[in-house]
């Protein structure tokens, strides 16, 4: 078995049976497993519906954190589903032998993308903190403009991560699942799709926030929003360094206060990004355990 970040998983307690009955049932599979499987699939469906609904919400730091928490919950449910013997049998049997390999590739991509996202977001937060210091010192406008350009560059890199989701889910077409496995395959496919769309929304929201856009870029983006629906994160759009007059003590003081609040929100997002990434790692570890099971 492959080790990783694992959550405990408990089956419902069985009623106490006489010793003789226990001995007779040793070699029989628990009849509660099919019901448990359906319950987990139902839980997955509810989580997916919740995430689809979440995507239409007002974009704020709380919205980002809520989306990442919901994503974590969905992958925890999928991990539970992958622990069931009947799930393992369905993924490994007959014509679906190649399916598990395709799934491993899909989830490896998610883990890699979230690793890059976590690293970029940490760099964004550190660069934002450095910009705060420069602003409080009221350094020359060229230095502050340079900080702003660095923030914009990092945010653009986060936005580019969305291109990794162009082909996700297509590999699941291989394997031609038989009717008894259709519900399982559809559930996993839906998890992959909603993970991609949720991540796309979060990455887009961050890279389109006006704090990480030059004045001209912000103007162009405001026009695009009307037809693309791309909006920045509210708390990450309240201060644009290039528009702060460093000669004005009042402007600097107000901008510094907002940037401190913005950093607090970024710390909250960073924590949720780490939780979501760990849940993706756990899901892939569970898939790898299925693939390497004898």
Layout of SSEs?
Layout: H1 19-24, H2 33-54, H3 61-82, H4 85-92, H5 99-136, H6 141-160, H7 182-207, H8 215-228, H9 249-292
Helix pairs in contact: 2-3, 2-7, 3-7, 3-9, 5-6, 5-7, 5-9, 6-7
Short description:
This protein is mainly alpha-helical. The chain contains 9 helices and no strands.
Fold and architecture overview:
Residues 1-33 and 225-229 have low confidence and may be disordered. The termini are close together. This protein has 294 residues and is mostly helical. It is 68% helix and 0% strand. It contains nine helices and no strands. It has helices at 19-24, 33-54, 61-82, 85-92, 99-136, 141-160, 182-207, 215-228, 249-292.
Helix content: 55-70%
Mean pLDDT: 80
Specify the number of helices: 9
The largest pleated sheet is described as: none
Helix and strand element order: HHHHHHHHH
Beta-strand content estimate: under 5%
Report the span from N to C terminus. 10 Å
Give the helix/strand class. Answer: mainly alpha
| Rg, nearest Å | 24 Å
Choose one word for the global shape: elongated
> How many DSSP E strands?
0
Low-pLDDT runs of 5+ residues are 1-33, 225-229
